[in-house]
Design goal:
The chain has 146 residues and is mainly beta. The protein has helices at residues 10-17, 50-54; strands at residues 6-8, 32-37, 69-70, 75-79, 84-88, 92-94, 105-110, 118-123, 133-135, 143-145. The strands form three sheets. A five-stranded antiparallel sheet has the order 1-8-7-2-3. A three-stranded antiparallel sheet has the order 4-5-10, with no helix packed on it.
Length: 146
Amino acid sequence: MAQGQGASYNEFKRALLAGEIDLSGDSSGHVIKVCLVTAYTPNIDSDLTYTTTISGKECSGGVYVAGGATLGGKAVTTDTANDRGKFDGNDVLWSALQLAQTPSHAVMYDNTHAGKALIAYWEVTTPTNGGDYTIAWNSSGIFLLT
């Protein structure tokens, strides 16, 4: 349900290039999580960590667990046909999700990095209704590096 605009945080870009964040799906990969937040206005320049920016804005209620869901099926691959690198993972599913608030954004962060570094956000506008709630990634991948 990532229906709207999204962006990666600038500190994530620096941390990725510095080797502080590992998106790979291998055993040394970091734990990447996706959470739902409400009434959030993203700032890719000044928002740095889940701990300082997101935790107080996270949705709550029903089966939703604070901190969000762990991204499974992480994979970093090379697409030689299109000359790019790709990061992908499984769609994120919350079953029977009934939140006290309507989420405004889905936020991805590195739960292993100090302070839980923010990676990216996407606008969401679909209210939960007690049914399954899915963040479905683009079929081309979550991130493409060209």
